[in-house]
Amino acid sequence: METIMSEKKIELNRRRVLGGMATLGVAAAAAGAGTYAAFTDSESSENNQVSAGTLDLTFGGSDGPVEAVSISNAVPGDSDTGTLTLSNDGSVNGTLDIGVAGVTSSGGANPDPEDQTASEDTGAALEEAVDLTITLQPGSGSTTVYDGTVANLSTGSLQSGIPLDSSTSKDIEIQYTVNPKSGQADNDIQGDTLTVNFDFTLTQA
């Protein structure tokens, strides 16, 4: 009898143990249920760039200072006209400013020194004798930027805010005329020299 009871106890104990193991196994399975791997998908954004535009003011495609008008051995009544083509070869629209960088003159040797005046000593006589006309887009729809003597020309801006979009051009016509005078006054300009420098600036619109 004791042997049978002992076997039953052992069997019962095994069942409890197995039952306990089964319980642990279920708990473990339940605990693992929250850690399975989920589906994922991703895309990427690459080569994000910012490219700066350009402003490139040229004289008809060429960089550097250019000479619009050159008069040699000028005498009263002489005139000369030059045209500059200003181009915006950049990718950004701009506005053009036209200005005077400076005026330089010097007096020459008058063959009749007894007629020499104080203004001739400095070259100012030639500044007073030369008329300057600057025209934007000469022809139909033209705009006069300046019309007067060089003596009355001031350094600084002549006209600003002129639209010059990308890949477009505008012509600037510059005309010099040596005004004839009556009598002895013409001799005041003999041997004088005169130089006028212009600045053209393109600014982002």
UniProtKB/TrEMBL annotation:
InterPro entries, alphabetized: Peptidase_M73_camelysin, Signal_pept_SipW-depend-type, TAT_signal
Domain of life: Archaea
PROSITE patterns referenced in this protein's UniProt entry, alphabetically: TAT
Region of interest (Disordered), ranges: 97-121
Protein name according to UniProt: SipW-cognate class signal peptide
Lineage, opening ranks: Archaea, Methanobacteriati, Methanobacteriota, Stenosarchaea group, Halobacteria
